[in-house]
Design brief:
The chain has about 375 residues and is of the alpha+beta class. The chain has a single domain (about 10-360), classed as Glycosyltransferase (Alpha/alpha barrel), CATH 1.50.10. Helices cover about 55% and strands about 10% of the residues. The protein has helices at about 10-20, 50-65, 75-80, 90-100, 115-125, 125-130, 130-150, 150-165, 185-190, 195-215, 215-230, 260-275, 280-290, 315-330, 350-360, and strands at about 25, 30-40, 40-45, 195, 240-245, 250, 255, 300-305, 310, 310-315, 340-345, 345. The radius of gyration is 20 Å and the shape is globular. The two termini are about 20 Å apart.
Length: about 375
């Protein structure tokens, strides 16, 4: 298969900006959960507060980078501000802080007191279960807000507490668990099987935590995870889906998600590069080339017709579970035939949001 060069950051940003307007509900001031191709047209399905926060973060970063707004996002930002007091997940609280960091004097969190945030760590279910992704969003949000307001002292205590919880989820392999182990046997095994998101968000959050608060251990931890993750990257630049954090191996390769390839992985590795001096450009470039067609099916995941990037390459669901079960039980990695892989003709707004965040300022 001939190698296809990675798409330029500018082209990816143009595609994302063009696609987000069709994913927005102006009356509700919120983004949809997903769009899917149905009878030759994109159809919006559901709504998502989390998708909206992430998408607005990406749009704000793009605007700050000099790219034009695809539509008036101020009503959506105002709506996000008014719903802050009703947030009941620590991850969403973190995303709110992250969004507020772009306009701290306009969209300051309603209550950023240490007592309120400590209560969130105690009361929010995702925090009580010590879920890695959500703790990472929270730490990233605190870090970005502290950097933007030049006031790390106010948030340093809760950031340190969150950092301690997050680092407790990192194994000797360098990879992070999905959550802190439960008391049950099933909880123990579930916690050790972590997704790509459980690796990449900590890398970003820990990198920015060092910048914001000067905690040296956070940058060291981010570097350990990144080195291990990049060592497991596929030959075509694929970021695999499920990992066993204890043994430090891949247990399910598919689906390979486009958002991991052009958004989340570049975002995290570029943030780490700012503190470590090593940006893993080779991993990023091969990751982006996968989007352009240097993948198992030689298919360009970008659709200029619909202004989206298709969601993933996946196996039939039964085959995915068989692959994970065999690998987890025996360590054997079955060869996957490319002809069995399918393109999922969906796109979610948070994908385009993270793409905007990662690619703004990236020179490819």
């Amino acid at each position: 298969m001939p190698h296809k060069p990675p798409p330029s950051a500018a082209k990816l940003i143009e595609l994302a900006l063009g696609g987000l307007q069709q994913m927005y509900y102006p009356e509700q001031k919120i983004f949809c959960y997903r769009t899917e191709l149905h009878n030759g047209a994109l159809v919006k399905r559901g709504v998502s507060r989390t998708n909206t926060l992430i998408t607005l973060i990406g749009l704000q970063k793009a605007e700050r980078g000099g790219f034009p707004k695809p539509f008036d996002t101020d009503p959506a930002i105002k709506n996000a501000e008014t719903t802050y007091g009703r947030l009941d997940r620590i991850g969403d609280i973190g995303l709110h802080f992250w969004l507020a960091s772009f306009s701290p004097h306009i969209m300051a969190p309603v209550d950023s007191s240490e007592a309120y945030l400590i209560a969130g760590l105690s009361n929010c279910r995702d925090a009580r279960e010590r879920r890695t992704m959500e703790l990472s969003w929270f730490l990233a949000g605190l870090s970005e807000y502290a950097i933007a307001t030049e006031n790390s002292i106010k948030l340093s205590g809760i950031a340190k507490q969150t950092l301690t919880l997050l680092l407790a989820n990192q194994e000797a392999s360098g990879l992070f668990r999905h959550s802190f182990p439960g008391r049950s046997i099933s909880g123990f095994f579930r916690s050790r099987i972590a997704s790509f998101a459980d690796q990449v968000y900590p890398i970003y959050a820990l990198s920015r935590c060092q910048v914001a608060f000067g905690f040296a251990e956070s940058g060291i931890s981010a570097g350990r995870c990144a080195e291990k993750l990049c060592s497991l990257q596929g030959p075509l630049g694929q970021w695999w889906w499920h990992y066993d954090a204890i043994c430090g191996c891949v247990v399910r390769r598919y689906p390979v998600y486009s958002v991991h390839q052009d958004g989340m992985a570049p975002m995290a590795l570029l943030a780490l590069g700012q503190i470590a001096g090593k940006t893993h450009y080779k991993s990023i470039e091969s990751s982006l080339a996968w989007i352009a067609g240097n993948n198992e099916r030689s298919v360009d995941m970008r659709s200029e017709r619909y202004s989206v990037i298709w969601r993933n390459l996946h196996l039939p669901e039964f085959q995915m579970y068989v692959e994970e079960g065999i690998h987890f039980a025996t360590g054997y990695e079955r060869r996957v035939s490319a002809k069995n892989l399918r393109v999922l003709l969906e796109c979610r707004p948070y994908h385009l949001g993270w793409l905007l965040f990662a690619m703004t300022g990236y020179r490819s």
